[in-house]
Amino acid sequence: MFATPFLDLPHLTQAGGAIHLPGSKSISNRVLLLSALCQGQTLVHDLLDSDDTRVMLVALKQLGCGVEHLHEAAHPAAAKDIGAVASPGSSVRITGLGLADGRVQKPAAAIEFFIGNAGTAMRPLTAALAVMGGAFTLQGVARMHERPIGDLVDALRMLGCHVDYLGQDGYPPLQIGSPQLKLDAPIQVRGDVSSQFLTALLMALPLAAEKDILIEVMGELISKPYIEITLNLLARFGIQIERQGWERFVISAGSRYISPGEIHVEADASSASYFIALGALAGTEKPVRIQGVGAASIQGDIRFVQAAQQMGAVIESGPNWLEIQRGVWPLKSIDLDCNHIPDAAMTLAVMALYADGPSTLHNIASWRVKETDRIAAMAQECRKLGATVEEGPDWLRVHPLAQGQWQQASIHTYDDHRVAMCFSLAAFNPDHLPVRIEDPQCVAKTFPDYFEALFSLSRTDTACIPVICIDGPTASGKGSLASQVAARLGYHYLDSGALYRVTAYAALQAGLALEPDNEMAIAALAAKLPVRFSGEQVLLGSQDVSDAIRSEEGGMNASKVSTLPAVRTALLALQHSFQRLPGLLADGRDMGTVIFPQAPLKVFLTASADKRALRRYKQLISKGFSAKLDTLRADLEARDARDRSRSVAPLTPAQDAMQLDNSHLSIEQSVAQVLDWWQRRQGFSTLN
Ligand code: DC
What we know:
Blueprint: E1 6-9, E2 14-20, H1 25-37, E3 41-47, H2 51-63, E4 66-70, H3 76-81, E5 90-95, E6 111-114, H4 119-132, E7 136-139, H5 150-158, E8 163-165, E9 174-176, E10 187-190, H6 196-204, E11 213-218, H7 224-236, E12 241-244, E13 248-251, E14 262-264, H8 269-281, E15 283-291, H9 304-311, E16 314-318, E17 321-325, E18 335-337, H10 345-351, E19 359-362, H11 374-384, E20 389-392, E21 395-398, E22 410-411, H12 417-424, E23 435-438, H13 450-457, E24 458-459, E25 467-471, H14 478-489, E26 492-495, H15 496-509, H16 519-527, E27 531-534, E28 537-540, E29 543-544, H17 546-549, H18 552-561, H19 565-570, H20 572-576, E30 584-588, H21 591-595, E31 601-606, H22 609-622, H23 629-645, E32 658-661, H24 667-682, H25 684-687
Parallel strand pairs: 2-15, 3-14, 6-7, 10-11, 18-19, 22-23, 25-30, 25-31, 26-30, 31-32
Antiparallel strand pairs: 1-23, 2-24, 3-5, 4-5, 7-9, 8-9, 11-13, 12-13, 15-17, 16-17, 19-21, 20-21, 27-28, 28-29
Bound molecules: 2'-deoxycytidine-5'-monophosphate.
């Protein structure tokens, strides 16, 4: 997951390959609650691991459910076969609160629930708790307190439930007491604001089905596909609901939850929309293949497939897979009633930027009461990219952008995962512009590894993947500076010195003296170096050599092998392979001069020899090594002299390098300076 303040997506050109998407949020949270209302255990496979499901799991635990995470590697073989990146999710065993008589075990004490911004937890939990009865409070983040719940509370009150508002009427936070259920009259609920109110009642009322219960929907029911998911899952848990049109639903007397024992969560069809769009937008050598959801899906958003086809995508499908390739280009504009695909339709708004005319999305009023006002958000951010956008209370019209019209934009994401994921697709713009996504970690709501998945399937010209080089002498602090800047930007990090250190270490282990006579043999070793970096760890094969190579002697040995031209050549390809999406921080001696001469930012870091010796001295002492300042200073000057005077790739600033003397700077100040240079070069901060 990218926990950085922003993530810059380089311009992307191509996509292809397979991915197993994480489980559906809607199915995951419904299945969790239904399992909690059953008697006995339910094993839930491929559960989505995200903010919203975590909220639900915490709430269930608070209620007294058993929640056991099983750390089996789900489908490891399948994941390997298809080169999947996002893990298919984990398995959880839920021990429900159901009693032998079909009712549920009520908690003895009062409980305060914190629901974050998870609508799929707030609504169903409110209904289930209100029917169950007890002393509960439910609250969430500020945005949750702006999301309406009045229609559900009205219905619950009509039923005899005890629900009070703790803040503004019609909105969470809520207080729930014990009900005196009145089941004779039909229960009326509005269906035209959020279908989650009806879902919540359908899942809660089987707990009270001593007689037939009739639910009547007032107003035109929106998002019907989500009600279909609810009915489908209720059936899997033993509850048959009689549906009369979309207006009346009957829960028959004596209904009771029965665990299916085991259940698999389908991959999320709304998440699939980004990868369907990816296949439709990107040049594809091979198709984008989505595993885990397909034609047999119970999720309404699977019908996004038809919308994408209408825009020109070529899509094949099987029961649980989809394969997408670009067909018509530019895409065909679309004029569509999106009521059946409310979430996935947001993706159409960004696809519309690549169409042959304006596209209009109708019947999307529910967007206004989601994680953010999504009509306003999509309009605003499309405009930042340069597009003309019109909006109405329940519609949005997006005009396409021709080549030359795109603008480099920093996309605000409104704490809305779907805004972030949608706008990542703007990185395929024909103007070769990067796109900045603010607060990228908001995707954690449904798809924590979204950007990793996007990068694993996407390609671009190497020249578009930015590299920031930090070169400089020994102990100038390059490593700390480079790794901290990398962490702030979400970029990869290459410690090139470690490659020379590992080479020297491997050579000595192989019995090779670090002499020019052994140049070819050492180079041969370097060319096949089985080195891997894992956080701070450096692994040579399966051996952890981190400490061994980071000694003073290790540095001196590295300096010796680094004078051998064949060794430097042998390490070239390995160093270049670190230039991966979304970008790279490379530290060393010749990053800017030899390895990445086209890098858009090169920094030459220096500090006085005294300072550097002192820093190294403190570092060694703090690690419990004995050290002498004079010797250290002499050693590092000797090493610098050799690094500067060698015939190939000598230590010298690149012509276009920014000089940074950090003798009197803290590491935070140095990081801030490099980030500032980088921001200026990127030009995002000034444009938006
Ligand atoms: O950065 P460091 O101290 O880990 O580097 C160890 C030695 O490796 C250094 O003295 C010179 C050599 N080196 C190099 O020649 N080129 C690089 N890009 C990085 C390191």
